[in-house]
Amino acid sequence: MKGYQVETRREGGISGCAITVPVSFQRAIGFEIGSASRGKDCGLLRDFATAGVAKLPRDLVYPPDGQDNERVGTCANWVSNTKGENCDPAVAAQVPTGAELILAAGPNVECAVFRDAVKKTFGPEFEPIATPGSCYFVEPRHRLQIEAGATANGGAPGKWHADPNKTYKDHRQTSFSGNPGVTFRSTDDREFSLYVSPFGNLGSRGHVRFRIAPERERGIDDWDRSRTVSAVDVARAHAVMELVMATHFRVAR
Fold it and tell me: Which of 123, 189, 191, 194 might form a disulfide with 228, Cβ 3.0–4.6 angstroms?
């Protein structure tokens, strides 16, 4: 049966464990132990929870792959405060030829543009979801969330390079498969972004973007809010954008 174990850690050790077993979209049965001094105490709680759940009717609890919340499919892994009403698992879509057509096509095509590159670079556990205006790639552990887009409505990449309000830092101008682009970080280092022009001009409206940010990992109670994007993930983001631009935006302009 499906359950969620959360460890509370203090000063490098485990100070408590809790296991939640969902029985509906709104309700769950909880098992908890505090003042745990050794990792094996979480194992004891797990044994206790297993014995308790075994006494419940099978139709009351969820199997390991069961949908236990009101979000649809992969949307359950989206880190968002909404109930997921604006989220749908991305469906397969044919990527048209030409930057103008790609940028006008919408979220499912945006997901299709990035799908292979993300899976190849970040791993097969990342699955795309479509929301109004963006495609996200999410994974069950919540360690990292990816936003990707290719749109004619989001402004020119040069807008983020200029950054008149100094919202970001570490602005750098670069290129991906011959397409000019910019990279930058949020001031707290929590997010890394790449914006590229598929038209060969940073001042032209429309862009291809890729943004990554670490999230609170499932199963960890005392998440480090100062965690920043790693150098490894920055390198992976560059690799994704290079592959995307080489695959879908190499048409002569």
Answer: 189
At CA 211, angle to CA 208 and CA 213, rounded to 5?
Answer: 175
The Cα–Cα gap between 101 and 94 comes to 11
DSSP symbol at 223? -
Please tell me the pTM assigned to this model.
0.75
Structure tokens at 183: 């990279």
| Distance separating alpha carbons of residues 45 and 18, to the nearest angstrom | 8
Report CA Rg, the chain: 21
What is the CB-side half-sphere exposure of residue 7 using CA atoms within 13 A?
A: 16
Is-contact 14 38, C-beta < 8 A? yes
Can you list the pairs that 47-50 forms with residues at least 24 positions away whose Cβ atoms lie under 8 Å? Answer: 49/3, 49/19, 49/21
Find all residues with CB under 8 Å of 246, minimum gap 6, and list them. 176, 177
Cα-based distances in Å from 91 to 14, 50, 64, 163, 213: 41, 37, 24, 35, 24
